[in-house]
Design a protein that fits this description.
This protein is an alpha+beta fold and 139 residues long. 33% of the residues lie in helices and 12% in strands. The protein has a five-stranded antiparallel sheet with strand order 4-3-2-1-5, with no helix packed on it. Helix 1 packs across helix 2 and helix 2 packs across helix 3. The radius of gyration is 17 Å and the shape is elongated.
Length: 139
């Protein structure tokens, strides 16, 4: 019964007078993040979360949205970043701890000279790598 209610309620806004249940609110946040960050191809995962944050408390349950942000980190998996040394990387892991919220592990896609990175390179820990520059998603 909870599954059916969640499916029926997940398009309701968090502040709707017919307040959706917990599972419906969770599904709303998860489905909208997936649609914005992955299916549309127009927003990076970071920008998708930023867009959703504008609607916290109205469309989305603010606590559930904040839990998602805390779990994914400042640069959720899939986010394209350019490092100070010119390398292009894709965030490969969610936040590991509060201390590493803004410095994920990433897979190198392009070396500093612009050439494709070999597939066998280990993940790069972005801690102490200088400022990170958010790149537009690939369309």
């Amino acid at each position: 019964m909870r599954r059916v209610l969640a499916i029926l309620q997940h398009h309701r806004d968090a502040n709707d007078r017919l307040h959706p249940g917990l599972f419906g609110r969770i599904l709303r946040v998860a489905e909208d993040y997936d649609t914005l960050a992955r299916r549309s191809g127009k927003l990076s995962p970071t920008l998708a979360l930023a867009a959703m944050l504008k609607w916290a408390g109205t469309r989305y349950d603010p606590v559930i949205l904040q839990l998602l942000i805390n779990a994914l980190g400042a640069y959720p998996p899939g986010t394209l970043l350019k490092l100070e040394d010119g390398r292009v990387v894709r965030s490969a892991a969610p936040a590991r701890s509060p201390e590493t919220f803004a410095t994920p592990l990433a897979r190198c896609l392009r070396l500093a000279d612009g050439s494709p990175a070999p597939d066998d390179l280990p993940l790069v820990d972005l801690s102490g790598k200088g400022p990170l520059h958010l790149l537009r998603p690939l369309s």
